[in-house]
Amino acid sequence: MIYITTPIYYPNDRPHLGTAYTTLVADAVARYWRLKGEEVWFLTGTDEHGLKIARAAEERGMTPQAWVDHIVERFHEAWDLLDISHDDFIRTTEDRHTATVQALLTAMRDAGDVYEARYEGPYCVSCEAYYTEDQLVDGVCPIHERPTEIHAEDNYFFRLSAYADRLLAHIEANPEFVTPETRRNEVVSFVEQGLEDISISRASLTWGVPLPWDGSHVAYVWMDALINYVSAAGYLDEPDRFAATWPAWAHLVGKDILRFHAIIWPAMLMSAGLPLPRQIASHGFLLVGGEKMSKSRANQILPGDLVPTFGPDGYRYHFLRDVSFGPDGNFSWEGMAARYNADLANDFGNLVNRTLNLAERYRDGAVPAVAADGPDEAPLREGAAAAVEALAGFEEFKTKQALEGVWRLFRAANAYLEATEPWKLAKDPAQAGRLDEVLNASLEALRVGAIVTWPAMPRAAETLWARLGLDGGPGDGPLAETARFGTFPAVTVTKGDPLFPRIETDE
Ligand code: MSP
Predict the structure, then answer these.
(1) Rounded to the nearest whole angstrom, what is the distance from the C-alpha of residue 104 to the centroid of ligand 1?
(2) Domain boundaries in the chain?
(3) Which of 56, 134, 156, 369 would give a disulfide with 490, using CB separation of 3.0 to 4.6 Å?
(4) Whether 122 contacts 130, CB under 8 Å
(5) What is the CATH number of domain 333-482?
(6) What span, in angstroms and rounded, lies between the C-alpha atoms of 188 and 50?
(7) Is 235's C-beta closer than 6 angstroms to any atom of ligand 1?
């Protein structure tokens, strides 16, 4: 089972392009694995406890529960808008989760890893994290560039310090545990400096999961949040499902929350006696005008600002094709429009229009199932094979490379039409057989094209599939069989409207 997760998002505001990025990559990768024929469990959700949420609710004069119930709908809307295909959506206020938090913290305590002590230090409410004085930059939070607050209270602590050596050994033995490599190095040097124990509870807050052994404390929101990955896998009362799902194949996270996932979470799992996830894959930030897009900077652009112009597929394609998973990436409307027009309106969209147009004009949409396998067709077959091979980039979150590879098929198919000139063949009755072959091979390229674009652009791929008159769907898989370049079947295709209408950029 491929169990893949996104972070669970703070429902203090609606999701923006930055938060949507992780979910989008996870979705494309989940779809890729389904296309390969793997069983997949794709989880996302919301992180609903903690001080940040309590304050967001208070500012609106609402109870925290009423506030999160309201805002969680914005997440569902955004994921629907972007055709996100998660199998489960966990909310940390659900019973299945709160009970799991209590069970896991109890297991950590039973292992002798929890003790009580006093804590005092700077706290960033936006991060929901304590800092030490020397981690602050000019006295403010290094991530949010906002003032921290001094928090002091008696807390329960987790003996994180005891796990440094085991963590280092695990990372060394499993080089793919943290990716990309720069992030792994960062984690390793952080752990090598020695780990401090961390506070796992708050006595001053009521909006959280009560500690099972001391109801005057609630679990620190990050302890609560990380446990979502096992709550949703059935840790508490579904042993069979848990055994099939856990450990996760990958947790996808932004670089700001890497330490929680690559250090604290594995130590919690070790303490509770559970296996570690296979991989923590970390990406950079989406920037606008060089700044991190964020709620606190009020520079956010929402998916709903772009989808009416670009469609869900234009949106998905741009972020998967132009943002490398790892480094920071800059967002610009102009860049997105240029990419859309070049790759979708021109390369892919025109190919679809031309091919279906030719099939309708010369064969009323019913092209006989006759295949050719000559030198003209070789680049098509190679393009299809290259596209399938490149898709494996999704296994390492190389969405850009995967889609570059897919485009080799479309370039080959466009070049094929130029080289074989079916519009000339149509003028010569003696070439009717050759015209059938050329149309068949071109339709076959579209059929394979629909399959290999499905992880990135499911809606366009499914629309194309329907126009090709094929049974089932492009995502049915298994890829190794369905994407083999062969003979297009004797069905009737229909032209339809342009899949990707051009966007006027000079307005
Ligand atoms: N609730 C925690 C995660 C708990 S996971 C057990 C949290 N939530 S968040 O809503 O603030 O952020 C969720 C994810 O969105 C993080 O991975 C973060 O990196 C990502 N992003 C937030 N802004 C972003 C950009 N501008 N660009 C890319 N990703 C960004 O942290």
Answers:
(1) 24
(2) 333-482
(3) 369
(4) yes
(5) 1.10.730.10
(6) 29
(7) no
